[in-house]
Amino acid sequence: MCAELSSSSPRAWQRMLSGRRLNLLDPSPLDVELSDIAHGLARVARWNGQTIGDHAFSVAQHCVVVEEIALMLKPDLDIQWRMAILLHDAPEYVIGDMISPFKNVMGGTYKAVEERLHHAIHGAFNLPPDLPVSIAKLAKKADIISAYLEAIHLAGFSKAEADKIFGKPAKVTAEQLDALAASIEPLPTKDAQEAFLARFAELNEARKIVGGR
């Protein structure tokens, strides 16, 4: 557990429900707990909560969908990369889900904090600090496809507007898009949290079986 900062220093750590204190300026893999990630992500709303339905569409559920899409795009995707893609937005359990326009305004400071958190999270689960370029591109493509579907089905965008902003998904059939649309029905918080934990556990077990790290 990271050491207490002096009383004269601005507090840069957040206390998690697990009891860990995660230092945002210098996050340690030892202070990263899966239960904290799942708990936090299930309570962070995509689109700043501006979505239809009785429940917010959480980042936890989005992460599960993005991993599903990545596997659809690349059926032979290695288990460790599936896990990394599931965790692609994991830093948001600490810093929240800022919409893209605000991230662009924030610029380098936000990205630097996000990158440090990503490295700590990857370290906690024995993943490389940075993804290979091909996997990073795959994760981004899957993320955009999920955002495209969320925009149309949850956030009030017209298809024409989504096509213009996100780009019409390539190499994905209409049937696949229809099937994925069912996956973005917003879940209650507890269900989204459990879905994230279940997918991680499934991938972690498969990783052990194939002799992953």
The biggest sheet amounts to: 2 strands, antiparallel
As residue ranges, the low-confidence spans are 1-6
Class by alpha and beta content: mainly alpha
Radius of gyration: 17 Å
**Helical proportion?**
55-70%
- Look at the structure and give the mean pLDDT: 90
* Strand order within the widest beta sheet: 1-2
**Count of separate DSSP helical elements:** 10
β content, as a range?
under 5%
End-to-end C-alpha gap: 24 Å
- The overall strand count is 2
- Helix-strand pattern, N to C? EEHHHHHHHHHH
- Assembly type of the shown chains? single chain
Shape: globular
Pfam family, one: YfbR-like
Protein name: Hydrolase
Q: How does the SSE layout of this entry go?
A:
Elements lengths: L12 E3 L5 E3 L10 H8 L17 H15 L5 H8 L5 H4 L4 H7 L1 H17 L8 H21 L5 H8 L7 H10 L5 H21 L4
Antiparallel strand pairs: 1-2
How would you explain this protein's 3D organization?
It contains ten helices and two strands; from the N terminus they run ββαααααααααα. The two termini are 24 Å apart. It has a two-stranded antiparallel sheet with strand order 1-2. The longest helix has 21 residues. It is mostly helical and 213 residues long.
Features:
two-stranded antiparallel ribbon, mainly alpha, 3% strand, 213 residues
Brief summary:
The chain is mainly alpha-helical.
